[in-house]
Amino acid sequence: MSGHSKWATIKHKKGALDAKRGKIFTRLLREIAMAAKGGGNPDSNARLRTAIAAAKAENMPQDNIKRAIQRGTGELEGVSYEEITFEGYGPGGVAIIVDTLTDNRNRTVSEIRHAFSKNGGNLGSTGSVLHMFSKKGVIDIEKANATEEKLMDIVLEHGGEDLRDEGEVWEIVTDPHAFEGVLNAVKAANIPVASSEVTMLASTYTKLEGPAANQMIRLLEALEDFDDTQNVYSNFDMDAEQMEHVVG
């Protein structure tokens, strides 16, 4: 199982801090409003289309989605948010990217820097770790719900890039532009999807053990818990035994 999949599993099993519905809704609404700045019609705005799909997956009421779009297009008054991406390093030199949406740049810079320094990490300069990641669509499917052959057919026919064996799940990897098409094909085949997202995948992963791994998890959780944080990506990996200890 890749580091990306392991961290997703840890967050899921621990009921990560942002699993509180209010926090999930806040992040999704901010993303919808920001995406809508590029146009309020999801048919011609892929970012908005993806944000709306993520909100619907969390059973967000349609009225909330509509108001967020209107705030983004300026039809309704709302807070103006700025996108800031931070790059840095965690324990053992693990690479970390933090995407934020904020209405107060100074507060966010201070909070993110504090989270890094308090948990054995440090902020890096722009571009210091971004080159180690690629933007990809990722679709996870429990193995009990589909065969490798059936999924491979979908991947090949609809422009997917790879099908990976991640233990209990199959992981389909796509180019971001092909993500919707592959996801829709999976759903059209009546195959249940465990999770789906456009994310940042690392080209290599750094394995940590013992106290360093625990400190890294504390750092990731601190970054995830900050209200302005939208996404956290890292190339952190740990062995299966330690993961079981962490999520147990």
Describe the protein's topology.
Elements: H1 3-14, H2 21-36, H3 46-57, H4 62-73, E1 82-89, E2 95-102, H5 105-118, E3 122-123, E4 133-142, H6 148-157, E5 160-166, E6 169-174, H7 179-188, E7 195-202, E8 206-207, H8 210-225, E9 229-234, E10 236-237, H9 240-247
Parallel strand pairs: 8-10
Antiparallel strand pairs: 1-2, 1-3, 2-9, 4-6, 4-7, 5-6
Question: If you had to describe this structure to a student in words, what would you say it looks like?
Answer:
- The protein is of the alpha+beta class and 248 residues long.
- The longest helix has 16 residues, at 21-36.
- Helices cover 44% and strands 24% of the residues.
- The protein has helices spanning 3-14, 21-36, 46-57, 62-73, 105-118, 148-157, 179-188, 210-225, 240-247, and strands at 82-89, 95-102, 122-123, 133-142, 160-166, 169-174, 195-202, 206-207, 229-234, 236-237.
- α1 packs parallel to α9.
- A 4-stranded antiparallel β-sheet has the order 3-1-2-9. A 4-stranded antiparallel β-sheet has the order 5-6-4-7, covered by helices on one side. It has a two-stranded parallel sheet with strand order 8-10.
- The protein has a domain at 3-73: Arc Repressor Mutant, subunit A.
